[in-house]
Amino acid sequence: MTDVAPASLDRVLRRCLAKDPDERWQSTRDLAHELQWISEGGSPAPLVPASRSRAPWGWIVAALFAAAFVTLAAIELREKPLEERVMRFQVPLPKALADWNPQPALSPDGTLIAFASPDGSLFVRWLDTMQEKELPGTEYAHQLFWSPDGRYIGFFANGKLEKIDPAGGRRYRLAAWPTRGAGRGTGTG
User: Which of 38, 57, 94, 141 has its CA 20 to 30 A from that of 47?
Assistant: First the structure.
């Protein structure tokens, strides 16, 4: 480069062509001041490498906090494996139903069992107290099932789909359910 430019401009050109961006002029204004200085007969300022910014401690600390937060969140929010246990228990039927084999329906939360007597009356038994209760107005009930939220027992009776609150609340008729031989559909009754 010394063959192309005078010695006073050699350093300026080298700094303009430096590979590391931090060693180049940071603005055209700085370069213009340097060229002005040289044109007025001054010698170029010594070439001082641009000061590299010190380690960005704020960003490093923020990154460490973010990594710690993500790690703790992953540990806390991951699904913990459920402990699988086999439970066996017996639920004795009421004495009046001792010789009958009902089809019980267990509530979604596992606290109640619903079953029907031979005449179709619904019974509910709480498993924690083994106390049972007959639900009035449920004659001829069969094919028991629980609502997904466990608030109602669904059943079929007298050609209708019905539901009732297990605590003995109101009984709701939901739909007609034709029985075989009634000439309407092929539902089971």
Answer: 57
